[in-house]
Amino acid sequence: MQQRHLEQAERHIAQGKRHIDEQEERIAALARIGADTTEARKLLNNFYATQAQHIEHRARILRELEK
User: Fold this and answer.
1) pLDDT digits (tens, 9 = 90+) for 14-59
2) 44: Cβ–Cβ under 8 A, 6 or more apart, which residues?
3) What do you get for the CA distance between the two ends of the chain, in Å?
4) Which are the contacts of 16, defined by CB distance < 8 A and separation ≥ 6?
5) Most exposed: 1, 15, 21, 61, by fewest CB within 10 Å?
6) Which residue range is the domain that position 51 belongs to?
7) What local confidence, expressed as pLDDT, does residue 47 receive?
């Protein structure tokens, strides 16, 4: 059961990294054309926060597996 949760957490982390990378690219593209990046940066900050939660979740699972 925990192994399945670990695999899911790993997938969420990988997906989160892709979202962060894509959003950073969008922000750079917006900045290059002089567009307002405020909302895009807010979304990126949400992605960072969610990613931190995914990483902490994985850490909890790993601690459980070590027991």
Assistant:
1) 999 999 999 999 999 999 999 999 999 999 999 999 999 999 999 9
2) 20, 23, 24, 27
3) 14
4) 47, 50, 51, 54
5) 1
6) 2-66
7) 98
Contact 20, 51 (CB under 8 A): yes
pLDDT band at 62 (very low <50, low <70, confident <90, very high): very high
Q: What single letter denotes the amino acid at residue 22?
A: E
The tally of domains found in the chain comes to 1
CA dist., res. 54 & res. 4, Å (int): 15
Query: In 3-state terms, what secondary structure has residue 22?
Result: helix
CA gap 15, 22 in Å, rounded: 11
